[in-house]
Amino acid sequence: MSVFADKPWLSSYSPGVPHLIDVPDDSLVDVIEASATTYANHVALEFFGATTSYRELGAAIDRAAEGLRRLGVSAGDRVAIVLPNCPQHIIAFYAVLRLGAIVVEHNPLYTPRELLHQFEDHGASIAIVWDKLAATIADFPSAMGVETVVAVDVTRAMPFGMRAKLRMPVAAARTGRAKLTLGHPAPGAVVWASLLKSGPIAAEHPRPQADDVALLQYTSGTTGTPKGAVLSHRNLLVNSLQGQAWLPGPKPGAEVFYGVLPMFHAFGLTLCITSAMSMGARLVLFPAFDPELVLKAARHNPPTFLPAVPPIYDRMLTAADAAGVSLASIRFAISGAMALPPALVERWEAGTESLLVEGYGMTESSPIIAVNPVAANRRAGTVGLPLPNIEIRVVDPERPGVQRGFDEAGELLVRGPQVFSGYWNRPSESAEALLGADVVADSVDPLDTADAAGSGPWLRTGDIVTVSADGFISIVDRAKELIVTGGFNVSPTEVEGALLAHPDVLDIAVVGAPDADGSEVVTAAVVLAPGVELDPDALRTFAKTCLTPYKVPRRFVQVDELPRSLIGKVLRRQVQQQIIGK
């Protein structure tokens, strides 16, 4: 019998947190429509002070869905969304789902090359994009199949007075306007606002079901280049409900979420697009994190829920102290995507009246797997306990049928109703990431039922962990070689491929070097052509032409050669150790 068969983490759950929750048969469309009815007069969205009620949000989703239907979107189609945080993003997300189509989220700060790779993979024919990027998407090769670009001017969601100021003929206004919008209709693109002039979609139009695919979320997975994780309505909804069940006393219809995390990222999407909207919360949206803007909003509508990454919490504390703004309204502060330094936890809890707790997840798990209790027994330095309906195992990374005991390091396996079904059009990589129950010895226990934790395959996380006798998970190492910087995953292979195109670079290994904030610094060890001197600025400038800024190495180290295995594979762990010592 497995050492974890009795689910020891359950003994550490906070009072009132259920061991299991009901797995819903609803779709995300059912949920947003219920919120539009139940919380009709409550504010759903706030953007630079402009507000949208749940009734208005529901009506906008219906009109946008009808507009997209007229453009030819039907069930099963992929629709790309390339937008910053803004009300149009929320509306587009649910409008696509209303048609039974599949949302494909993209980082709007990606370079054309990065976006091109993803569009080649998913083959969306319609893209809803920030108007500043409309020309980039329209210029993609016609063989890729992008037929229609819908351009979104995010400033149209701002208050009228603010929009008027942005149109003033002064340098500051022109600069601010240029950051937010193209400033004129994108040639050849459909204007987003025109979709909202459609009538509501017919009530009898077919609706998505819980097991239909809702989202392709791109991730580097456990290895290699980005690939689309296939997530269903049920996956996303149950993960939202698991998180809500974890919280002590959430107040439906009264919470104020601050959307400082990008919603194209799995963490921001689940906490803001699905969780906040299902709870009838006010979601205050920020197109990019700016402490001054956040504190300005906090003076009028103080946040109660702040999901973020450690650098954001650190900057928020510093800015709030300088401005004399209280953060005491925040009841829930959940950190994820990167390690949370214990010193930051102490600083946050000394300067606010809330606990700052760390969680853990991955895109393939919708994404949340474990969170520390929002209670006195939270354990800094760990990533907490598995959420309800989630089962874990710790196994030998080379032999997943061999299980580890308490406090023994091994690879973390996860299963539950929030685990994805595989990668888009990548059957071999899906098979590597998902293991059948027969592979994981002694995996069946009495609490496992078809609608609870035991359903579905085991997800290989690629993370090396230990689990204490009372269920707390500690991350020891990553079997995968992804670099986590500022809460984002960076694939070393992708960065290496980009820089190898530089004529002076003969060989390269990209690794993560520890940073003071608990994140990692993308660092490149390079072998240069004979006679060439290292010019970090030139290499960095070159990398920026094909990589989004957070992927560009901040540090370059010249080496004579790279350590390799007998079969020629670069030994990145040895490279990392050498670089840390320099």
Automatic annotation (TrEMBL):
GO terms, molecular function: acid-thiol ligase activity
Superkingdom: Bacteria
Domain AMP-dependent synthetase/ligase: 33-424
Database matches in Gene3D superfamilies: 3.30.300.30, N-terminal domain of ligase-like
InterPro entries (alphabetical): AMP-bd_C, AMP-bd_C_sf, AMP-binding_CS, AMP-dep_synth/lig_dom, ANL_N_sf, ATP-dep_AMP-bd_enzyme
Domain AMP-binding enzyme C-terminal: 494-569
One Pfam family of this chain: AMP-binding
NCBIfam families assigned: PRK05605.1 (NF004114)
Listed name of the protein: Long-chain acyl-CoA synthetase
Taxonomic lineage of the native organism: Bacteria, Bacillati, Actinomycetota, Actinomycetes, Micrococcales
